[in-house]
From TrEMBL:
<keyword id="KW-0963">Cytoplasm</keyword>
<dbReference type="Pfam" id="PF14651">
    <property type="entry name" value="Lipocalin_7"/>
</dbReference>
<dbReference type="GO" id="GO:0015908">
    <property type="term" value="P:fatty acid transport"/>
</dbReference>
<comment type="function">
    <text>Binds free fatty acids and their coenzyme A derivatives, bilirubin, and some other small molecules in the cytoplasm. Involved in intracellular lipid transport.</text>
</comment>
<feature type="domain" description="Cytosolic fatty-acid binding proteins">
    <location>
        <begin position="5"/>
        <end position="22"/>
    </location>
</feature>
<dbReference type="GO" id="GO:0005504">
    <property type="term" value="F:fatty acid binding"/>
</dbReference>
<keyword id="KW-0446">Lipid-binding</keyword>
<dbReference type="GO" id="GO:0005737">
    <property type="term" value="C:cytoplasm"/>
</dbReference>
<dbReference type="InterPro" id="IPR012674">
    <property type="entry name" value="Calycin"/>
</dbReference>
<dbReference type="InterPro" id="IPR000463">
    <property type="entry name" value="Fatty_acid-bd"/>
</dbReference>
<keyword id="KW-0813">Transport</keyword>
<dbReference type="InterPro" id="IPR031259">
    <property type="entry name" value="ILBP"/>
</dbReference>
<comment type="similarity">
    <text>Belongs to the calycin superfamily. Fatty-acid binding protein (FABP) family.</text>
</comment>
<protein>
    <recommendedName>
        <fullName>Fatty acid-binding protein, liver</fullName>
    </recommendedName>
</protein>
Length: 127
């Protein structure tokens, strides 16, 4: 199943505890908790371009499966990582945060991020 498409955040679990754990300020957490971010994914073979727009903040990352690249994290920091494909899932570990993204069905994408036992789950629907 292709990840390509535009998705809007529908629901999320453990937003505040996760954001605190990765070091976001309370002010930014309060600003961001009710914003329905939009994710746009372009998949061409093993190359991906992912743009996430949350209010006025835009985070764009490009990567090729299995190749080290610099990725911007949710805190705005740029770190090196390798995205791997595991069956229908995309996985990456960045500074102690384990991220798994998968298509649940043709219109639903789920991203689960884990840090220190806190699991943050984002469910987005195709627009």
């Amino acid at each position: 199943m292709s990840f390509s498409g535009k998705y809007q955040l529908e629901s999320q679990e453990n937003f505040e505890p996760f954001m605190k754990a990765i070091g976001l300020s309370d002010e930014l957490i309060q600003k961001g908790k009710d914003i329905k971010s939009i994710s746009e994914i372009q998949e061409t073979g093993d190359h991906f371009k992912v743009t996430i727009t949350t209010g006025s903040k835009v985070m764009a990352n490009e990567f090729t499966i299995g190749q080290e690249t610099e990725l911007e994290t949710m805190t705005g920091e740029k770190v090196k990582g390798v995205v791997v494909r595991d069956g229908g899932k995309l996985k990456v570990s960045l500074k102690g945060v384990e991220s798994v993204t998968e298509m649940m069905d043709p219109n639903t994408i789920v991203n689960t991020m884990t840090v220190g036992g806190i699991v943050y789950k984002r469910i987005s629907k195709r627009m």
